[in-house]
Amino acid sequence: MEKSLGLVDLSSNERDVLYAINEVSSGSPKKARSEAIRNHPLAAAIPQATYHRALKSLVQRGLVAHAPDTRAGHYVLRESDEA
After folding, report:
1. Using DSSP, how many helices (H) and how many strands (E) does the chain show?
2. Each residue of 31-76: pLDDT tens digit?
3. What is the C-alpha to C-alpha distance for residues 43 and 34, in angstroms, rounded to an integer?
4. For a tag site, which of 6, 32, 56, 60 has the least CB within 10 Å?
5. Under DSSP, is residue 82 helix (H, G, I), strand (E, B) or coil?
6. Residue 74 main-chain phi, psi, to 5 deg
């Protein structure tokens, strides 16, 4: 599944941030606050600058997007075309 979603191309930090987003997301659509992502055990040990680079990379790759109709710091996982 990770290969079909392109997750094998991610760094370990990008994967940890992506999994953290998935675990802390709630609502419909599932949104995650940057603070909650950052505090998740998978992301908490990542240095601050590295965390932000990983999050920015996930947005650029189209795996994560800024949540619509929210203030800055809210993210949503992008829907996979292969669901």
Report:
1. 4, 3
2. 899 999 999 999 999 999 999 999 999 999 999 998 887 777 889 9
3. 11
4. 60
5. coil
6. -120, 135
pTM, 2 dp: 0.82
Tokens representing 60 are 């650029």
How does 7-46 read in b/e, with b if 16+ C-beta sit within 10 Å? eeebeebbbbbbebbeebbeeeeebbbbebbbebebbeeb
CA atoms within 13 A on the CB side of 49: 0
Q: What structural domains and CATH numbers belong to the chain? A: 7-77 (1.10.10)
Structure tokens at 6: 């392109």
Beta bridge partners of 64: 77
